[in-house]
Automatic annotation (TrEMBL):
Taxonomic classification: Eukaryota, Viridiplantae, Streptophyta, Embryophyta, Tracheophyta
InterPro entries: Aldolase_TIM (IPR013785), DUS-like_FMN-bd (IPR035587), tRNA_hU_synthase_CS (IPR018517)
Recorded catalytic activity of this chain's protein: 5,6-dihydrouridine(17) in tRNA + NAD(+) = uridine(17) in tRNA + NADH + H(+); 5,6-dihydrouridine(16) in tRNA + NAD(+) = uridine(16) in tRNA + NADH + H(+); 5,6-dihydrouridine(16) in tRNA + NADP(+) = uridine(16) in tRNA + NADPH + H(+); 5,6-dihydrouridine(17) in tRNA + NADP(+) = uridine(17) in tRNA + NADPH + H(+)
GO MF term list: flavin adenine dinucleotide binding; tRNA dihydrouridine synthase activity
UniProt domain DUS-like FMN-binding: residue ranges: 105-372
Cofactor(s) needed by this chain: FMN
Assigned keywords, A-Z: Flavoprotein, FMN, NAD, NADP, Oxidoreductase, tRNA processing
EC number: 1.3.1.88
Protein name, as recorded: tRNA-dihydrouridine(16/17) synthase [NAD(P)(+)]
Length: 433
């Protein structure tokens, strides 16, 4: 199926439905999800009800019975009133089925689109997030939907990330993409002013009950697990309370950016790996770490210090999409320089590969240009007239970009990437030293 022709039949499902009616409703023969209760489902209801009535928490959570009965009528829902060990086992089983990926492309607005994801996957990325998608625009504007979300069968495991502040709108958007992804992710970490104006991302941290309702809505109604990406609170205990609430609401995987909402500049503020370690210790679902990843040494250090199940990289991947393959930029070689060798790859090569992927998987020019500036930044600094020529283009073409690359090469521009040898052992690219 062409990815631009989505299965919109899921949109025909109601945002909510009457609990009493759900027991007698006859399934439509073409409905992708039946709401009637078969004998097996009745047994599920009975088991869930018995668990609830025997639980010491029944007085503390009077709303849980209704949630259990509703979710039990959705046979394949990942969090169908699952409690305790069963729910956590399901989260881990799903993660294991995906191969427990550790090297992951972080969500980046207009930057983690399909061609870039595929380039990163070629160079070691084991999973990836889409750019943040605005749930309301996604369901209302077909052009926005078809341009900003594309995928292919090789583009897995895949997290599709939405920002939203309305549970029903979020669910409607999520149902469109769930056949094409492994997690639907909720953006709870964007710290930018546009997120403040739109009341989403990290600014929902001021309304935890709304966040809880967003997670619960998806967990009870989707056939794929729900993940969340967050920033930490300044106070560690607030962060722990926050992530436990997310886990209880149905989050099956949590990615933690170890900076607060106010710590926007990665150059000025180091991510707090100790806070991520505390989150990992407090939860029973997979946890991913985000922040301070410049090269593979950082990846190994982060995994060790945080205990996280995987690592996300964003900014560093934009400049060096081959990071997860062991390549690093010269600026990150600060000591043991004799143990680094120039690899057979540079940023110009990576850009050419990216452009070819864009021809295969078309995306808006704004996305392509953003990557051109990231990967050729040093070349433009050395030869600003090349950059000025690019800036003056009103109708950009691939032919122009390939010619521009040739101009830089004719000027002797080389932006080499380096591999770390082990000084006497086997190097990253397999050659002996």
């Amino acid at each position: 199926m062409d990815i631009k022709h989505f299965a919109f039949s899921l949109l025909s499902l109601p945002h909510s439905y009457n609990l009493r009616e759900s027991f007698s409703r006859t399934p439509h023969p073409h409905s992708p999800m039946a709401f009637s209760i078969s004998q097996t489902q009745k047994q599920i209801h009975t088991h869930a009800l018995d668990e609830l009535l025997c639980s010491d928490q029944r007085q503390e959570e009077p709303h849980k019975l209704q949630k259990c009965l509703i979710s039990a009528s959705v046979p394949d829902s990942p969090d169908r009133c699952l409690t305790g060990e069963v729910r956590f086992e399901r989260a881990w089983d799903h993660w294991a089925k995906l191969g427990r990926p550790k090297l992951i492309v972080a969500p980046m607005v207009d930057n983690s689109e399909l061609p870039f994801r595929m380039l990163c996957r070629k160079y070691g990325a084991e999973a990836a997030y889409t750019p943040m998608l605005h749930a309301k625009l996604f369901i209302e504007k077909g052009k926005h939907r078809n341009q900003d979300f594309t995928t292919c069968k090789e583009d897995r495991p895949l997290f599709v990330q939405f920002c939203a502040n309305d549970p029903d709108i979020l669910l409607e958007a999520a149902r469109i993409v769930e056949p094409y992804c492994d997690y639907v992710d909720i953006n709870l970490g964007c710290p930018q002013r546009i997120a403040k104006r739109g009341n989403y991302g990290a600014f929902l941290m001021d309304d935890l009950s709304l966040i809880e309702s967003l997670v619960e809505k998806l967990a009870l109604n989707l056939n794929v697990p729900v993940s969340c990406k967050i920033r930490v609170f300044p106070d560690l205990q607030d962060t722990i309370n926050y992530v436990r609430m997310l886990e209880d609401a149905g989050c099956s995987l949590l990615a933690v950016h170890g900076r607060t909402r106010d710590e926007k500049d990665w150059k000025l503020f180091q991510a707090d790996w100790k806070a991520i370690r505390a989150v990992k210790n407090a939860l029973r679902i997979p946890v991913l770490a985000n922040g301070n990843i410049r090269h593979m040494d950082d990846v190994y250090s982060c995994l060790e210090e945080t205990g996280a199940d995987g690592v996300l990289s964003a900014k560093s991947l934009l400049e060096n999409p081959a990071l997860f393959a062991g390549f690093r930029m010269g600026q990150w070689i600060t000591d043991d320089e004799e143990c680094h060798t120039q690899g057979k790859l540079d940023q110009v090569d990576l850009l050419v590969e990216y452009l070819k992927l864009c021809e295969r998987y078309p995306v808006p020019w704004r996305m392509i240009l953003a990557h051109v500036y990231e990967m050729l930044g040093e070349g433009f600094r050395l030869h600003p007239h090349i950059r000025d020529g690019l800036n003056s283009q009103s109708n950009l073409t691939f032919e122009y970009l390939y010619d521009m690359v040739d101009q830089l090469r004719d000027l002797g521009v080389r932006l080499p990437l380096y591999l770390k040898d082990t000084c006497g052992k086997v190097s990253v690219n397999g050659s002996s030293t």
